[in-house]
Amino acid sequence: MTRPTTSEARPPNEPFRPGNSRHPSKGHIGLIVAGSLLSGLVAAIVLVAGPLGGSQEHVITGAVLLAFAFGWSLLAVLSTLWTDQPQRWAIVPAAFMGLFGAGLIVFAPDARALNVVSWVWPLPVFALVVWMIAIARLQLRSHARRWFLYPVFGVLALAGLGGAWQTVAAAVDRASAVMPGQLIDVGGHRLYLHCTGSGSPTVVLQSGAGESSAYWGWIAPAVARDTRVCVYDRAGRGFSEPAPSPQDGIGAATDLHTLLDRAHVAGPYVLVGHSSGGPYVQIFAARYPDQVAGMVLLDGQSPNVLTKLPGFPAFLNTYRTATALFPSLARIGVFRLVDLSSFGSLPPEARDEERATQSSPELARSQHEEFAELQTALKQAQALKSLGDKPLIVVTAAKDAPDGWLPLQDEMTKLSSNSMHRVLPNTTHASLIEDRGDAATASQAIHDVVESIRAGTPLTKP
């Protein structure tokens, strides 16, 4: 029988102790490191996808930080109890993240306060990462340092770098932004409105969900050659201020009505809605029928998608949960990075404005609130039963359209006895607005409705 060497043998009078380098059942430090960090990640996913799904930015960010703090705490405790390489230093990132996360949840800072904090937190994170790299090199003798800790340190450093980049770039965007229109108080918050061109009827462009007025860069100037056209930003996006609380479709319609009234933009209007802007213009038409002269739906969302479009309710529930993460991701520069190559087909000025707007935490927060209220808005849009004989053109982007989309588009033409359905087989939902050629087709539909109103004659095929 082979006897253990002196270095492996335990003296007869030495008790078993956790962390004892001679403990024959000591744990594997690599498993402890991987398991602890993975536990923190799983806890974060469970929290934001489960009980806290759809919460506000400070709750989501705070919960994620507390979950990560839990993971670091596990590393500090378990490595001390079960291995011969105690990583007590891990209590420092646990305390840092835990205190920051708890502070966010307890104090519930608003968007302005979070913008201030965004100038502060990246530097401590960088310092923490540098310190953790140094201490881990000294105290962790395992491949787990390279396989697990260094990638985590890299992610933390990138988050700090992205946060600093986003904060500085957003400040530059705000300082260099040129606002050609005006801000008008609609009762507790101000909305941005920009009208160009001359003539009547006035065309009002209603953006899709999560979009600003900037993406009408091709269509608004084209329509302005024929008549007066107004673009605006709904509350919380673009140049507009956020509303005191999330708005449903009626809230958005009321805002628009007040905005046009206080800006002295006379109706009745031609309402143009793209995507989820379709239900918004239908709500407006149902509430203020005398203020509507005609309508154009540019691949507009049907109010009946919840019941007649397969898979849409599941998509909406998933996306509503996912958008709760968007403000936090925007704050560390994720969307600014993604949007570097986005909206390239828009005119340069509109492209730059759209990229700046879409990368902001403010728009991400507004987008989340909008999707949280979208189900209500769709039901409210069902109140519009008829436009009578007012001209209506439904333009459908058929390329990559989901199953069931085209029949719902055709169904919306029944809102008016003076309607037309134009199906564009090679146009996508986004290119209808962003591509110059496809946007020209959209502009032509608006022109045709305007001319029908002016002439007092039914719509005719182009």
Describe it.
With 462 residues, this protein is an alpha/beta fold. It has two domains: 29-176; 183-310 and 321-455, 3-Layer(aba) Sandwich (Rossmann fold). 53% of the residues lie in helices and 10% in strands. It is built from 18 helices and eight strands. The chain has helices spanning 29-49, 57-82, 91-107, 111-117, 122-139, 144-176, 219-224, 249-262, 277-287, 305-308, 312-322, 326-331, 334-338, 348-358, 361-381, 405-412, 431-434, 436-455, and strands at 182-185, 190-196, 202-206, 229-233, 269-274, 292-298, 392-397, 419-424. The protein has an eight-stranded mixed beta sheet with strand order 1-2-4-3-5-6-7-8, with helices on both faces. Helix 1 runs antiparallel to helix 2, helix 1 (29-49) runs parallel beside helix 6 (144-176) and helix 8 crosses helix 9 (277-287).
Briefly characterize the structure.
This protein is of the alpha/beta class and 462 residues long. The protein has helices at residues 29-49, 57-82, 91-107, 111-117, 122-139, 144-176, 219-224, 249-262, 277-287, 305-308, 312-322, 326-331, 334-338, 348-358, 361-381, 405-412, 431-434, 436-455, and strands spanning 182-185, 190-196, 202-206, 229-233, 269-274, 292-298, 392-397, 419-424.
Helix segment count? Answer: 18
Estimated helix fraction: 40-55%
Straight-line N-to-C gap: 98 Å
Low-confidence stretches: 1-25
Return the domain count: 2
Q: Give me the CATH fold name of the largest domain.
A: Rossmann fold
CATH first level of the largest domain: Alpha Beta
Structural class: alpha/beta
Mean pLDDT: 92
Give the topology string: H per helix, E per strand: HHHHHHEEEHEHEHEHHHHHHEHEHH
Number of strands: 8
Examine the secondary-structure arrangement and name the CATH architecture of the largest domain: 3-Layer(aba) Sandwich
What's the story with the biggest beta sheet?
Answer: 8 strands, mixed
CATH homologous superfamily designation of the largest domain: Alpha/Beta hydrolase fold, catalytic domain
Strand content bin: 5-15%
Q: Can you list the strand order of the major beta sheet? A: 1-2-4-3-5-6-7-8
Shape: elongated
Rounded Rg: 28 Å
